[in-house]
């Protein structure tokens, strides 16, 4: 996948995939994901960026 920040530095962390990447505004950040099995995996933004930061979470769904 490719992540891009438009406003400020952000950090993308997906612990189950051992991913912790920092994004620089305006610069695409490639993230290599290799799921070993189906399932639902959590991710969150790891660099504090202001109001609402704690709500910046999501899930990656890997289907067969």
Describe this protein's structure.
By secondary structure, the chain is mainly beta. Helices cover 0% and strands 42% of the residues. The chain contains no helices and six strands. The strands form two sheets. Strands 3-2-5-6 form a four-stranded antiparallel beta sheet, with no helix packed on it. The chain has a two-stranded antiparallel sheet with strand order 1-4. The chain is globular. It starts with a strand and ends with a strand.
Give the tags.
64 residues, mainly beta, four-stranded antiparallel beta sheet, two-stranded antiparallel ribbon, globular
Derived structural class: mainly beta
The low-confidence parts are none
Total number of strands:
6
Give the helices and strands as they follow along the chain.
Answer: EEEEEE
Strand content: 35-45%
Global outline: globular
Short note summarizing the structure:
With 64 residues, the chain is mostly beta strands.
Question: What are the SSEs and their pairings?
Answer:
Elements lengths: L1 E2 L6 E5 L4 E5 L5 E2 L8 E7 L11 E6 L2
Antiparallel strand pairs: 1-4, 2-3, 2-5, 5-6
